[in-house]
Write the structure tokens for this entry.
Amino acid sequence: MKGRTIIQILLGVVIVALAYLLYNSIQKPVRFENEYNKRRDACAEKLKAIRSLEEAYKVTYGTYTGSFDTLINRLMNEDSMKTIVKVTNYDKIPADVDINEVPEKEAVEKGYVSRQEMFINPIAKLREDKKLNTIDATGHTVQMTDEQIKNLRYVPYPKSEKYEFELQAGMIDKSGFMVPVFECKVPLAKLLSDMDHQQVVNKIAEINKVNGRYAGWKVGDMTQAVTDGNFE
């Protein structure tokens, strides 16, 4: 009787162990996909912000840049973006005129309102236009801090490493005109380097089968004048 009890206990342990192994084998790809999606979304947030910086740089300086130092330092530290602001000339408005009731075209013609060129900080403009969005610890959408902008160059995962996104910029010939282009990207092999190697290999092979897609996340393209992201 004692021997039978021991065998029953051992069988029970084996059954539990097998059930755990079966459950784990089922959950392993699920966990991988969840982590893969989390890292994709984190990259997408940074790449969108980098694209906004590059677009602001192009508006300000007429081209893109392939240097994070140049991109971030110039946009943060120079009041270099030209903008047109509307100025109300109160000294030219008669006392009996309500400027709010005057059509804008008429107000300009009569000198009540004028437009002036001003140079502003590009980062301040991007924040004003809500193009540097991030999610804070409470789940609210806020504008990135200076420190977060400075760290946009770094791939968010793996946490144990400090990789930079690959950033390039140049010019291409489009119908006889030279057009500025840029590209910012990170390969999956780098982004997922601390995850299960075989599952990473399988994911890259799966993506490569789809029309030779780039196995990673990126915005822009060095071969065509687009600023789309392949995560959108």
Remarks:
- The chain is about 45% helix and 20% strand.
